[in-house]
Each structure stands twice: as structure tokens, then as C-alpha cells.
Design brief:
11 strands, 8% strand, alpha+beta, eight-stranded mixed β-sheet, 23 helices
Length: 641
């Protein structure tokens, strides 16, 4: 009676908040009923599959779950190919009544929109889509629930009415609480709304200029309702019901993978989730389906409840344009890794909106064109050029640089330069893989030189030495080095590393070949070599070992230079200088041995073996000197850039 009197006085606007609440409640019911109709159609067409359980969603909307479960479980295909189910006529009548309740609510505040919606519903009725017979065509179910842009449907009408109700709720809000439009709250509701908004406001800035995240809250049916529109995508809404310390989350999304992503953000909470892939519309493509997810959280205190609400609010910004960001990242790394990067960005409150706003794909494309035009081919994924872990790390850095840059008001050019510099660093780190293989080669070279030194030292001490064993060991090492060189070249090709890396591989392999030749000659040399020739050969062999150690030291230091360590660059250059000095010492030693042989009266076997052994060792140091020149180039040209 009071409501009727208010209407007669022309003050019906005062009833609008409750009318909106009733319309939103009808929206909750009609979504579940449409899902029930879809589930019944699916079960009738595939009776071998277990019926969909909509009990959590039914209870959240205040519907009798047993009746809907009986309808779905009893759905079957009739002999004339139609859908029949117990209670089907009542379900269709209830769906129409829910739609009318929403229209009444919209008409109460926006008469023109209400009239337009009434005409749309009348057209749907006149098309026979809401006839409440004992059976219906399967095609009619698809038409009722379709969200296609090209044709009107009940589902599309409901979505438009829902948006209108959200706008009306904002217009008639009694107050704004921490950014949320609220009305009809009890005092006990306010801390819960404040907790949700605390989380939302902590991350809201990460959406930048994208619309969305509007929140409204009201008390209806003995519980607090909080609703957020998230972004601008149709059917992308979250409704939260709070009663005491219990929280029920109803989340709808057009993308199944994003719905799964959303749920995973709350793995630190003891929440139970249902739904996901059980609510796609039958006979529709992915873009015309929506997924309904329900979450239940029972807090043991108001603090636990509020922590969960804050986490819900903080997570929403990371859903805006999420699928757009995922598709973009998938062109640079594997599909699962793209999702992992977005998960990392959400958990570290970096987000992806800044990255998209500053250009996204163009940011990365520009970095590749400017920083590595010859290293990364057109259309080549970053994980192929950098390796999987390095590519993921680089893309995380790109998202962080974009967010920090846009937050600080930096120019797009400055952010792009930062991303390009980071790409160069990652490419240089990618070279460290082949460099590590080169280090293994130098280790093998050291093994051969050390074995040769031991052989000569044994001869010098007058002990017997097994030359054949020396040659066999050196041969095995040389074969192993060849296999490593092949592996290194494959890595260079796979990572599209700098050409100098492959040249370093070649010089190291050549040095091992010369040392293996020296070991072979030493195995054939007469045992009676002694005196000055043997002493000189021992000294020359020690020089070769020093050269290998200098090369290894320089290579190890160069591998650290991309990290920006000046001391490592200095160490690497100093090692190159030592390497050049050893090469000069080897030249001098080899010439001294040659002069000694020509001046002495040695037999032919001794003379030839001493000369050839000295020349082989000296050639190895020549190859190592070439290694040093390349390393110097790598440090001064490639790494300094």
C-alpha cells in the first residue's frame, strides 16, 4: 500500500533502488534458468554424458536446485526430434517472467528504454520462441540463448537490460563508498564493501585509460550484493554475495581460458569453485558462448572474509584485455608460456594494460628491428632466438618497463629504448650458451696439452713413457672435441648467435687438432731425446698451457660482461693481452728449437721429431692467438655496444 501511495504521488523514483535490486535478482535467476535450458538440450542430445550440476548456481540465485536438476536429468529427445523435459513449460514461462521483471525495473527509471525492451520481447514472443509447450525444437534453444550480434535474442535482450540496470544503479546510489555506488546498506555491510574497494583501488591505476571496474553494492534478500562490470566485454561481470563471513562469487566470461586464469589467482585461499566449461551454449562458436563460474569462500573471521574480498577486487584489473594480451604474447612464445607471463604480471601487480596501450606488438617489433635485425628473423618467435627461459624473462621485463614507464609519464620512445636495450642484453646472454660449449673445448685442449707435458716430463726424468697411450688418449679427446664443435655450431644456428661465436668455436677446434698432432708426433719420437732439445720442448709446452689458460680466463670474463660488470671487461681484455704474449713466447721458443736442431749433430729421427713437435705446438698457440683476436673483437665491438 505504501508503494502504491508513493506512485500516486508521483514519487515512484524513491522506490527505484529496490526496483533495481529486484531487476538484478531477476537477472541472476534468468542466467541460471537459461543455463538450465542449455544443459537440458545438451543432455538430451548426449544422454551418455553425466547431467550438468547447477546446484551452486541455483542456490546462489535463490532457486530450487532439486527442480532444475530433475529437469536436466529428465531431458530427452522425442521421436520427432524435439526436446522434452519435466517442468519444461514452467521453465520457459519463468524465463519470460524474469525478463519482464527486468523490463519493469528498467522502465521504472528509464521509460523509453523499458518500452524499447518490451517491443523486443514482444517480437521474440511473436516469433514463437517463448511458447511453453511440452516439447521444443533444439534450434529454438540455440536461438533463445544466442548472443550473436547479427540477430536479436532473449540472451542479447537480457544482457542489454543488465547493462541498463547497472547504469540506473549508479544514478540512484545513495552514496559513494571508496568509489563504489552503494544504497540500502546495513552498517555491518560497510566493512565488506570497503575491503573489496581497498583491493580494487590498489590496482585500479593499472587499467590506465581503459573504461571499466565500476562497482555498485546494495542489500537484497538478507545479504550484501557487490557487483563489478570489469571491462566492456559483453557477459563479463562479477557478482559477489556476502552473508556474515561467507562469500559467494558468480563470475561470467566469454573466454574459458580467462575464467581458469581468474580462478588460479586465488589459490592461496580455501575457496571452492564450480562451473568453467559446463555452460557453453549448444551449437554455438566460442565467441557466442559464455561460461558461468561460482566460487564459495567461508571465512573463519571477518578479517579472513575481508582479505578474500580485497583479493577479488585487486584481481579484476588483470582481466581487462587479458585475451588480447595473451594472443599478442602467443606470437612471441608458446601458448602456455604466454599465460604464465600474464599470471606472473598479475601476481606481481605489473599488469599488461600499459604494454598494450604503448603499442604492445609494435614495441616488441621495433625492438627486434632496431636491436637485432640480423639475429631474429621475420616472424621468428623470441623463444627460438633467445631460448625459452630468456624469452619469458625478456617479456616480463617488457611488461614491467611499460607499466613503470607509463606510470612515471615517460615517453613511448624512452620505454622503447629501454626494451631494446634489454633485448640486446638477453641476446648477449643467449650467446653465453655457445660460449659455455667453447669453454668445454678449451678444457679438452688443456687436457691434451697437460698429457703431452707429462709425457715430456717423464722423458726428461728418464722414466719410461707410453707414447701409444698418449696418442690414443689425444685421439679420443680430439674426437670428443669434434662432437662438441658440431653441438656448438648447432646452438649458434638455433640461437642465431653472433658470427664471432662460431669463429671462436672454429679456432678452439683447430687448436685441439694441432695439439692432437703434437701428441701423435711425441708418441713416435725416439726415447733418447734429451738435453737442450727436450728442455726447450718442455718450456714450449708450458707456454701452450699458459695460452690455453689465458684463453679460458678471457672467455669466462667475457661471458659476464653483458651483465654490465666493468671489472669483467677489464679482466677479459687483460687475459687477451696475456694470450698474445704467450703466442709471441711460443714463436720465440719454436725458433730457438729450430736453431738448436740445425746447430747440433742430431740423428734424423730426433731432428725431425723435435722440429715437427715444436711446430705443432707453435701452430696451436697461433690458433689460440686467433682466438684471442676474436675475443677482443667480441668484447670491444659486440659487448660494448
Amino acid at each position: 500500500m505504501k508503494s502504491q501511495i508513493i506512485k500516486e504521488l508521483g514519487q515512484a523514483g524513491i522506490l527505484l533502488p529496490q526496483l533495481v535490486a529486484d531487476g538484478l535478482a531477476a537477472n541472476d535467476r534468468i542466467k541460471v534458468r537459461l543455463s538450465t535450458l542449455q544443459a537440458a538440450s545438451q543432455h538430451a542430445q548426449a544422454p551418455e554424458r553425466a547431467p550438468t550440476d547447477l546446484s551452486p548456481e541455483s542456490r546462489a540465485a535463490g532457486l530450487a536446485s532439486a527442480d532444475l536438476a530433475a529437469l536436466i536429468g529428465g531431458a530427452h529427445r522425442t521421436t520427432n526430434g524435439r526436446l522434452a523435459a519435466p517442468g519444461l513449460p514452467k521453465l520457459i514461462r519463468d524465463i519470460e517472467e524474469d525478463a519482464r521483471a527486468m523490463i519493469r525495473a528498467v522502465a521504472g527509471g528509464r521509460p523509453a528504454e523499458g518500452d524499447a525492451a518490451e517491443k523486443r520481447l514482444a517480437a521474440i514472443r511473436s516469433a514463437g520462441l517463448l511458447e511453453a509447450g511440452n516439447d521444443v525444437e533444439f534450434a529454438r534453444v540455440a536461438r533463445l540463448t544466442s548472443a550473436q550480434e547479427t540477430a536479436d535474442s532473449l540472451h542479447r535482450l537480457v544482457m542489454d537490460l543488465h547493462k541498463a540496470l547497472n547504469r540506473m544503479a549508479a544514478d540512484c546510489a545513495e552514496e559513494v563508498l571508496d568509489g563504489a555506488h552503494v544504497y540500502g546498506l546495513a552498517d555491518a555491510d560497510r566493512p565488506a564493501v570497503a575491503a573489496f574497494m581497498r583491493g580494487l583501488n590498489a590496482t585500479r591505476a593499472l587499467k590506465f585509460d581503459h573504461p571499466g571496474l565500476d562497482t555498485m553494492a546494495t542489500r537484497s534478500g538478507g545479504r550484501l550484493l557487490i557487483q563489478n562490470d570489469i571491462g566492456t566485454t559483453d557477459a563479463h561481470v562479477m557478482v559477489i554475495a556476502v552473508k556474515d563471513n561467507a562469500v559467494t562469487v558468480t563470475y561470467t566470461d566469454v573466454h574459458l581460458v580467462r575464467a581458469k586464469f581468474f580462478i588460479q589467482l586465488f589459490d592461496d585461499f580455501a575457496a571452492h569453485w564450480s562451473g568453467l566449461d559446463r555452460h557453453s551454449a549448444a551449437g554455438l562458436g566460442e565467441e557466442n558462448a559464455f561460461f558461468l563460474v561460482t566460487g564459495q569462500f567461508e571465512g573463519d573471521s571477518a578479517t579472513a572474509r575481508d582479505d578474500f574480498l580485497a583479493a577479488l577486487g585487486a584481481a579484476l584489473v588483470f582481466l581487462i584485455d587479458w585475451n588480447k594480451a595473451r594472443k599478442l604474447l602467443r606470437s612471441w612464445v608458446a601458448k602456455d608460456d604466454a599465460t604464465r607471463i600474464l599470471d606472473w604480471a598479475a601476481r606481481h601487480r605489473v599488469g599488461h594494460r600499459a604494454f598494450l596501450q604503448l603499442g604492445g606488438n609494435e614495441l616488441l617489433g621495433s625492438a627486434v628491428r632496431n636491436a637485432a635485425p640480423n639475429r631474429i628473423g621475420f616472424g621468428e618467435r623470441l623463444d627460438q632466438a633467445l631460448g625459452r627461459n630468456a624469452a619469458i624473462d625478456f617479456l616480463k621485463g617488457a611488461l614491467r618497463a611499460s607499466t613503470e614507464g607509463l606510470m612515471a609519464g615517460r615517453s613511448v620512445r624512452l620505454v622503447r629504448d629501454q626494451i631494446e636495450a634489454d633485448l640486446v642484453r638477453h641476446l648477449d646472454r643467449a650467446d653465453s650458451g655457445p660460449l659455455a660449449i667453447v669453454m668445454r673445448q678449451l678444457g679438452l685442449a688443456h687436457d691434451v696439452a697437460a698429457a703431452l707435458a707429462r709425457h715430456l716430463a717423464a722423458l726428461q726424468a728418464g722414466r719410461p713413457s707410453e707414447g701409444k697411450l698418449l696418442a690414443a688418449r689425444a685421439g679420443r679427446i680430439e674426437q670428443k672435441a669434434d662432437r662438441i664443435a658440431i653441438e656448438a655450431r648447432q646452438e649458434v644456428t638455433r640461437l642465431n648467435a653472433k658470427p664471432v661465436i662460431e669463429a671462436l668455436v672454429d679456432r678452439a677446434e683447430e687448436a685441439i687438432d694441432e695439439l692432437e698432432q703434437a701428441a701423435f708426433i711425441a708418441s713416435l719420437a725416439p726415447d733418447h731425446i734429451g738435453g737442450k732439445p727436450l728442455d726447450a720442448l718442455c718450456e714450449l709446452c708450458a707456454v701452450a698451457i699458459a695460452a690455453i689458460e689465458a684463453a679460458a680466463s678471457g672467455l669466462a670474463a667475457a661471458a659476464e660482461v653483458p651483465e654490465g660488470r666493468q671489472a669483467d671487461a677489464e679482466d677479459a681484455l687483460a687475459a687477451v693481452v696475456r694470450l698474445m704474449d704467450t703466442e709471441h713466447a711460443a714463436d720465440t721458443g719454436e725458433r730457438a728449437i729450430t736453431a738448436l736442431v740445425f746447430a747440433g749433430g742430431f740423428d734424423v729421427a730426433t731432428s725431425l721429431s723435435v722440429l715437427e713437435l715444436a711446430r705443432a705446438i707453435e701452430r696451436a698457440t697461433d690458433r689460440l692467438a686467433g682466438f684471442g683476436h676474436l675475443l677482443h673483437q667480441h668484447i670491444m665491438t659486440d659487448l660494448s655496444a
